Amino acid sequence: MKRYFIHTFGCQMNVNDTNRMGEALASMSYSATPTADNADLIILNTCSIREKAEDKMLSALGRYRQVKLQRGALIGVGGCVAQQEKDKILEKVPYVDFVFGPDAIGKLPEIIARIETEKVRVVETAWVDSESYVFPQADPRSSVGRTTEFVTVMKGCDNVCAFCVVPHTRGREVSRPFTEVLQEVARLTTVGVREVTLVGQNVNSYLGGISFAQLLLRTAQVPGIERVRFTTSHPHDLSDELVEAFRVEPKIMSHFHLPVQSGSNEVLVRMKRDYTIANYLERLAKLRAVRPDIAVTTDIIVGYPGETEEDFEKTYQLCVDVGFDGTYTFVYSPRPKTIAGLKEAEWGPVAHEVKVKRLEKLNALQKKVSVALMSQHVGGTVEVLVEGTSRTNAAKRFGRTSHNRVVNFDGDAPIGALVEIKVDSSSQSSLGGVQGRVISLPNVAIPEVAPVAESCVVA
User: Fold this and answer.
1) What's the pLDDT tens digit per position in 79-129?
2) pTM for the model
3) Would you give the distance in Å from CA 285 to the centre of its chain?
4) FRET label pair with 98: which of 25, 134, 207, 265, CA 20 to 30 Å apart?
5) At residue 126, what are phi and psi to the nearest 5 degrees?
């Protein structure tokens, strides 16, 4: 049996795509390996949100060249960079055997067979028309050993924000029929999955036969499902109906990732984000009115073209006022084919050292806020869904709270158990504690399965 290794960069969509790649390769009698050194096939599933992600991809390809020389391993590049920069990859990295876009995951067996028989480099980055696109059907067997799983509900984005490459790499929005989503969720419960995260570039604009709020409510009603999450969202799609879903359904977890990008209305206009800060805060207030303790995280770009010191201070003050549970902060980098990339010289580039200084200031603030929020749990109890052995301490277990906070704890509860944890320590990024009462157990025994395919999340 041949072995494959997938190095995954980027977002939850890419992690989910990696799972689908693994299933396609399993149909060819490939098995996963935890290291590239003994792989017969290496795939880099790439992200192009930031220039840094592309640089890391090229660096990884350099490391994997030795495996090709020693073992004759096939090397492929998939994902968003592959979709956007196929010619550059083939030119710069002559030992790459194939390049394929997100729409071609289902063609992996065909691509590899062609390489092996015809001894040619293959490029498969053609778009599939929205009307013809078929979402890959997940095989629940690939989720054995997990109690939480991603489920794709849509792909692409219609917003065309000035800084974003997603419309160029993932295409226009296509929503998956809600019946398919619910059927996949139900199949996942047969192997012990108790929590699902519905994923897409802009899930709130879902149009798969019912509204996204209705999809959340129906997903929560699937027997065996105890927790429902989703990502990611656009502020203009945070509807009153979605807010109401948080009020009536406790299985929808108390965490909302709501990217604001900037605290300056002037910058938001140049970003082509069709809301003001007042709009954003109004919608956030409605959400907190029905879930006062909800954890809100966000994305922020610093050093966007034309961003003045006053613009940045508005962003900083917004973070002070809102008190985000977490901020994913990025230094602006121009991306190919985007409006901001074309207009940067006209709007005014921000010096790199200024970008870094602003980023450090925001991150210092967020560290203080996060430490304070996490410390509030010490001495109390939290409810955790056990996901397995702690990633930082093999002697402990770990899971997440409703607010998506990681908890490492002493105890022996099996994967899939809902347990109470007495919190005795905290840090900026996690809580520590001791297992208490077991609230419920999964209907299916979930084996302790070590992960086999590396997931290097860099975006």
Assistant:
1) 888 888 888 898 889 999 999 988 889 899 999 999 999 999 999 987 766
2) 0.89
3) 25
4) 134
5) -70, 145
Do 229 and 403 touch, CB atoms closer than 8 A? no
3-state secondary structure string across 321-360: HHCCCEEEEEECCCCCCCHHHHHHHHHCCCCHHHHHHHHH
E strand map for 111-222: 122-124, 148-152, 154-155, 174-175, 195-199
* pLDDT tens digit sequence for 391-412: 899 999 999 999 999 999 999 9
SS3 content of the chain, % helix, strand, coil (to 5): 40, 25, 40
* pLDDT at position 188: 96
Q: Report the C-alpha gap between 71 and 307 in whole angstroms.
A: 50
H helix runs in 72-173, sequence order = 79-84, 86-92, 108-118, 166-169
Q: Dig out the tokens for 246 from the structure.
A: 């948080």
Q: How far apart are CA 240 and CA 26, in angstroms?
A: 43
Q: Which of 377, 437, 372, 373 is nearest to 407 (CA)?
A: 377
Hey, which bits of 209-361 come out as E strands? 227-231, 255-257, 295-302, 326-331
- CA–CA dist 301, 447 (Å, integer): 41
- CA-CA distances (angstroms) from residue 186 to 141, 180, 236, 370? 13, 10, 31, 36
Q: CA angle at residue 383 from 16 to 223, to 5 degrees?
A: 55
Mean pLDDT of 75-80: 92
Those residues with Cβ within 8 angstroms of residue 116's Cβ, 6 or more apart along the chain or in another chain: none
pLDDT score, position 429: 94
Predicted pLDDT at 84: 81
Domains and CATH numbers, the chain: 2-124 (3.40.50.12160), 140-371 (3.80.30.20), 381-440 (2.40.50.140)
